[in-house]
Protein: Ferredoxin
Amino acid sequence: MAMVVTQPCIGCKDKACLPVCPVECFHEDDAMVYIDPDECIDCGACVPECPTEAIFYEDNVPDQWKSFIELNAAKSAESPSAHD
Ligand code: SF4
Structure:
């Protein structure tokens, strides 16, 4: 299980979520940031920091954004760390 970044993140790039992540598991591309599900420890620290309320626990991702669960895993594997 992991947290998942969803649709409202697209175009935001505020990145207020990044400094609070204890395991630095965010990745990014031109569109948004993603959480690596293999590294996220479900601490929840990033959730209240997100200005667009885009981050959900995997089990609580709204139906219309379920595709972001796989997208976060795939994009984390191919995109650079957002913490560099
Ligand atoms: Fe990082 Fe915690 Fe958010 Fe997972 S839940 S991405 S470990 S801050």
In short: The longest strand covers residues 3-5. The mean pLDDT is 97. Residues 67-78 form the longest helix (12 residues). Strands lie at 3-5, 26-28, 33-35, 55-57.
